[in-house]
Specification:
The complex is a heterodimer. By secondary structure, chain A is an alpha/beta fold. Chain A has 11 helices and 8 strands. Chain B is mainly α. Chain B is built from 17 helices and no strands. Chain B is elongated and about 70 Å long. Classes of the chains: A alpha/beta, B mainly alpha.
Chain lengths: ~300, ~300
């Protein structure tokens, strides 16, 4: 089965992860612009980060047979540095029209401050202007209220719920998000968000319509195989294959495909993995390296 | 170099044979918007969003158009250009000027925020831009990329580097191209800029690779031709004795091209290769192509 991980910060992951993801059937990923674990202090750091999302990381992923897309936006945490946030807002139009940018995101609330609200609204307007979907990050703390508020404000700005993906849902938020016509994404992330067993029960209860599974794997203890693992668990626990396909592949494609920047043919008809072309210095592989074969049992590191 | 508007007109002519009418209309509208807008945002958006209108398919070029390209810019060839990059180049040519250079910061902004395909378009367009001497640092920066296709955009089929890069940057380009196993025969004007410091570095590189039990690309030997001394002769001898078929052809051709008195003596030990060279059956381009095909 093919999988899409529609929320993963692959910039923070190793080539081992990419290899494992490819092996597990992940054909495409979406990397939302987020914070880097500590706040940035200069607008140039944002610019280079956005450039790496549409440039280097996309190239790196391709070498492992994975098509990389991204979302561009000012995250809610860093919206609280208002002077910096204003500069970042001026930068966004440079990136939102680029190839492979499938949404404005991840945006929304963290502490639910006034500044967060201001920049969330500005970015909803930007999304409307460039006709891109929106990926909403819902807060860790005070989640239910933050989730409802995200949707209220989005509707206030006239966005079609079908163009909005609300992420990091749980048992407490899912019903209303689905009832109001939004896409409900779930992040399988140990300890802080969802476990895969809970995810199985949610799909059993609510069915597969508009439900999306992702990993949000980043620089923390997280699992870049969360999507294929959850899919396997769903099958094991008797969820119909068709429902697994929808929640772990098709729904993400449909939701983010509304950007016009993501199509199935991107991976079905893609060129063979760049690695095997042995473009010598093509960088992740240095000087004519060949793709790594599984040599876990050996201490020999190939020449 | 021809007038900028002539170049732009030519590229639009090339596009009109490939792109759809609606894409060409879109381009016209964008050019007009960019011309009349006081901010650069229209340019930045159009430059990115060109990908929604033009395919990444290589443009089809008649022989006539190929000749015309060379008339517009010496050494200019767009045999690998895609419709998308051609459209992006049209947009850039609309904002640059040969009267003054105040557009360079705009170009910098495009470079700094460019995605992979945009970088390819920007670097390939270097030979078409005015004030070429002011773009050398940019070209040298392009050589530092880790993305093969971006490196290729600077290094291959592009007359800019051999004409404008200083020796240090030029040698970096050559060395990196060899390191990355790029087709050297596609580096415009490469042979003419062979130099002794580069040759010395390449000799060190050959030793380093051989110590590690690795090969070097056959086209490398071409850049040692004007500097063959006893040491290089020894290297060629080793390749002729122990190399692969293709490597031996390359070493033989280097021997044949070089002036050193030891070369004809060495070559005479391999009459089969000598005979092939005599009837023109070995060329650097042929070696480069064969190496690419083997990989």
């Amino acid at each position: 089965m093919m999988y899409i991980d529609p929320h993963i910060h692959v910039t923070s992951r190793t080539t081992d992860d990419y290899e494992a993801m490819h092996k597990a059937g992940i054909v495409a990923v979406i990397e939302p612009a987020f914070w880097l674990g500590q706040p940035r202090t200069k607008v140039g750091s944002f610019q280079d980060y956005f450039s790496s999302l549409v440039g280097w990381e996309r190239f790196r992923a391709k070498q492992f047979g994975i098509v990389h897309y991204c979302t561009i936006g000012l995250n809610s945490k860093e919206a609280n540095n208002v002077p910096l946030a204003e500069e970042v807002m001026e930068l966004l139009p440079l990136y939102v029209g680029k190839e492979g940018v499938v949404a404005i995101g991840e945006i929304g609330y963290d502490d639910q401050t006034e500044a967060e609200d201001r920049f969330y609204r500005l970015q909803l307007e930007l999304a409307k202007e460039v006709d891109l979907p929106v990926m909403i990050h819902t807060p860790h703390r005070d989640k239910k209220k933050g989730t409802l508020r995200s949707m209220d404000v989005s509707e206030e700005h006239g966005l079609d719920p079908g163009m909005v993906i609300v992420d990091h849902n749980n048992e407490e938020t899912v019903k209303e998000v689905l009832d109001r016509g939004y896409w409900a994404a779930f992040t399988i992330y140990p300890h802080t968000k969802m476990g895969s067993e809970r995810m199985v029960e949610i799909v059993r209860q609510y069915g597969p319509e508009r439900i999306i599974v992702d990993s949000a794997a980043d620089w923390g203890i997280s699992d870049p195989l969360a999507v294929p693992k959850t899919a396997a668990l769903m099958l094991e626990k008797g969820i119909p294959k068709e429902h697994v396909e929808m929640t772990c592949y098709k729904n993400a494609l449909k939701a983010y495909g509304q950007s016009g920047q993501m199509e199935e043919k991107d991976w079905l008809e893609k060129e063979p993995i760049d690695q095997t072309k042995k473009h010598g210095g093509s960088t992740v592989l240095r000087g004519g390296q060949t793709p790594r074969v599984d040599n876990d049992s050996s201490n020999i590191i190939e020449n | 170099m021809q007038d900028l508007s002539i170049t732009r007109h030519f590229l639009k002519g090339v596009l009109s044979e490939t792109a759809s009418a609606s894409a060409l209309d879109w381009l016209e509208v964008q050019e007009e918007k960019i011309r009349t807008s006081p901010s650069q945002m229209k340019l930045f958006l159009a430059f990115s969003q060109a990908s929604r209108h033009f395919p990444k398919e290589v443009v089809k070029l008649s022989e006539e158009k190929n000749l015309e390209a060379r008339k517009i810019r010496h050494g200019f060839q767009l045999t690998t250009w895609t419709a998308l990059q051609t459209a992006r180049t049209v947009l850039i040519l609309g904002v640059v000027s040969d009267k003054d250079d105040d557009w360079i910061p705009i170009l910098d902004r495009l470079f700094e925020s460019a995605d992979m395909h945009e970088q390819e378009a920007l670097y390939s367009a270097l030979p078409l831009l005015p004030f070429p001497e002011k773009l050398t640092a940019r070209a040298a920066e392009g050589i530092r990329t880790n993305i093969t296709s971006v490196f290729d955009a600077v290094a291959l089929d592009n007359p800019y580097p051999s004409e404008y890069l200083d020796e240090a940057a030029w040698n970096q380009l050559l060395l990196k191209a060899i390191f990355m196993q790029r087709p050297l025969y596609r580096i415009v004007g490469a042979e003419g800029r062979a130099n002794l410091p580069l040759a010395r570095t390449l000799v060190d590189y050959v030793h380093e690779r051989w110590s590690a039990g690795r090969n070097v690309i056959p086209e490398l030997w071409r850049f040692l031709v004007p500097f063959v001394d006893e040491e290089i002769l020894g290297l060629l001898e080793k390749v002729l004795g122990e190399g692969t078929n293709l490597e031996r052809k390359a070493a033989a051709l280097a021997c044949s091209d070089a002036d050193h008195p030891g070369c004809p003596i060495l070559l005479s030990k391999y009459p089969d290769l000598e005979e092939m060279i005599a009837r023109g059956a070995i060329s650097w381009e042929g070696i480069g192509r064969a190496f690419d095909a083997e990989r």
